[in-house]
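Intended use. Records such as the maleylacetoacetate isomerase entry shown here are meant for training and evaluating sequence-to-structure methods. They are not intended to support clinical decisions.
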Amino acid sequence: MQQVPALHIDGVTLNQSLAIIEYLEETRPEPPLLPSDPKKRAQVRMICDNIVSGIQPLQNLHVLQKVGEKKLEWAQHFITRGFQALEKILENTAGRFCVGDQVTIADLCLVPQVTNAERFNLDIAPYPTISRINKSLLQLPAFQVSHPSCQPDTPEDLRA
């Protein structure tokens, strides 16, 4: 599909974020990114699906190119719609992070989506839980060094 990410590891090439993350979780389980409790694991997967299936694909470059001049309005609409639903979910699942106080795969999905919201000039103030969790995550060194604005191939105008 000519999309990123892709990871070549252990003799296999994987694409799509969740497939990569789940493979890493299964083959390198420390620290765990899924809770041991089945209900909490389901909540993590539900949050991930809301983000990676319901919000993020609508902001992919090839989609925005098809939308044309209204790409900002388009992106803001679908992020807003997704964040309204996500905020309600997180009000019931969050502790310090998306599901309780353990960093999970849901948190790995949330931070890049908040970055997208900021990229499209969306005010995230109406989403206090999303905002609080994102701020907590950005305090962690792993999230700081992996932030999109810190990557070597990030365009100059988007760098930290």
